[in-house]
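Format notes (please read before filing issues)

Several people have asked whether sequences and structure tokens are stored in separate files. They are not. Every record keeps both together, in the order shown below: the sequence lines, then the token lines. Line labels are part of the format and must not be stripped during preprocessing.
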Amino acid sequence: MPTKWIITSCPTFTRSFFMRSLQIVGIFSAGAALLLTLSVAQQSGRSDEGSYVLALDNSWNRALETKDTKGLDLLLADTFVSVDIDGSTQSKTEFLASIQAPSYHPELSVTEHSSAALYGDSAVVVGIFRTNGVDRGKKYANRERFVDMWIKINGSWKCVASTAVLIPAKHPSN
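Then the structure lines:
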């Protein structure tokens, strides 16, 4: 009963307390809405960045098919390292030279599927890549799983490392 008496005897206190509570709830609600909006915008921005990195990664295929070492040079960091399906490694200079080799004749370079995961100014692209052509007089047709590591350097995305593993062809069992 004393509580009821205090509330009814102090209507100004009750109204001001109620109004203050509404203001605090309103401020928290506005803050939560702002955080939600920023989170959605950041996710959209990250999605755009991921799509951009995937587009760069896919442009690598066209550059391989056309032996466009100038295009590849723009995509690769100066410290780029490639780990090939046989376990060998190549620097950027060695990789670009191998693409320009007169004995290398790519016919098809296609990414079957890939996905990008962003980590700040870094991205990891994982996918499956098919390629065929002629290298040193021998025909090849490969299907490979690859991992490409991209870093945003001075505002530009550059691939710093690439590794590929040959996916063995499945042979029908007898």
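For reference, the curators noted about this record: The longest strand covers residues 104-119. The chain has four helices and six strands.
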